[in-house]
Design brief:
CATH architecture of chain A: Orthogonal Bundle
Shape of chain A: globular
Structural class of chain A: mainly alpha
CATH superfamily of chain A: MetI-like
CATH class of chain A: Mainly Alpha
Radius of gyration of chain B: 19 Å
Transmembrane segments (chain A): 20-43, 55-79, 85-105, 149-171, 191-214
Number of helices of chain B: 8
Oligomer: heterodimer
Protein name (chain A): D-methionine transport system permease protein
Main location (chain A): membrane
Number of domains of chain A: 1
Low-confidence stretches of chain A: none
Strand order of the largest sheet of chain B: 6-7-8-3-9-10
Order of helices and strands of chain A: HHHHHHHHHHH
Largest sheet of chain A: none
CATH topology of chain A: MetI-like fold
Distance between the termini of chain B: 41 Å
Structural class of chain B: alpha/beta
Keywords (chain A): Cell membrane, Membrane, Transmembrane, Transmembrane helix, Transport
Largest interface: A-B, 22 and 32 residues
Subcellular location (chain A): Cell membrane
Amino acid sequence: MPDILLRYQAEIWQAIGETFIMVGVSILAAILVGLPVGTLLYLCRKGNLLENRFVFSSLNLLVNIIRSFPFLLLVVFLIPFTRLIMGTAIGTAAATVPLSIIAFAHYSRLVEQSLLEIPKGVIDAAVSMGASVKEVVFKFLLVESRSGLVVGLTMSTISFISYSTIMGVVGGGGVGDFAIRYGYQQFQTDLMLYVIVIMVILVQMIQFIGMTIARKIDKR
Amino acid sequence: MMEWGLFVIELQNVTKKFGNHTAIQNVSLTVHQGEIHGLIGASGAGKSTMLRVMNLLEIPDSGSVYVGERELTTRSKRELREARKRIGMIFQHFNLVLNKTVEQNVAVSLQLAQVPKHQRIDRVRECLRFVGLEDQMDKYPAQLSGGQKQRVAIARALANEPEVLLCDEPTSSLDPHTTSEILTVIRDIHERLGVTVIIVSHEMNVIKSICQRVTVMDQGTIYETVQIESSGIPRSDRSPERFIKELKNDA
């Protein structure tokens, strides 16, 4: 182990912990909000089970707006909102607010996309068997799209890691922030490179795990 | 001359439009209980739409649909879902859930009908035995041939003991041999279970082989309904000698 990593061991572990919190909350937001929003986007689309132009356009616009912000600007723009609900706009906890918002917007699009790939005939079959909309979603759509949903969540998670590094700007901490403050700003280029290597390994692991699960559950 | 019982399905002045295109125009049709009724016509004649109106998979713009004593068109959503459970349907592309096993695909229709879990497995077995796939329960659709997939779909449609089986181009993506196989299963369902069958097909030989009455559709309307003597399902021979013989005959 290089000396410099040992010297900053405590800080690195703390930074990794902060990254895990930020990314973890983002994943939760993606699943708890992004999955339903993406499903609703799909269901309300023209020609689908809950066709509703108003709901579709509203959600579509909201997701588009969130996703068209350069992330740093979104963070700054949301500062008053973050302060309102977290009491502060600084620190790891506060950082989870803008992260959760970009997370649900990001993942809901991927959910919508996975659902759109399911052949319409499966829904015909479900409806002809007397399934309600809820049953169509849980017993058919989510089952049939499950590997796409996992691939999407893997891609989203990797993006969340990248977004979380930007949170260093508002004191969110995390590995990216550590690399910039201790590595780049203190001219310890080797430290920065080591951190980058850690991140690359982390992303590789997530990608590998995600793809392995997706392949395992895909019987199509 | 056969005696027809109560009608099972009746469409009265049904019209269905998709945007500016009128798929079926003011169509009235009665399908008798216990018959195998064919719907044939050129593509775009409205035969599939007419079938899909029968379980309100397509909601008509006007007109009414009766199944048995029930008028479907005035039902609440919940009642309509209940009524659909008594109407089985199979499709050209089988429409199985590819991430569910054969067993799970059949079981889901029982689940939707709130059949208790311990009764489900027996019924699933029974249905799969009927279509000759009892030994394939744990396979996924991707591991099956086209004909086997269609038989799973048939088992799924049979699970809730339907009174009516709607077949939308059931053999159109199958080869002639498998077509005969599937038609045999459909005829069995009709003969052994007394299920009324309605088949949409653009293939004349399919319609002629098992139907007793046939409605010919043209440009969204009924041209004529005729009673026929079904010609029987052709025995299909896949031996190389047969191919050679047919090749030479056609030449």
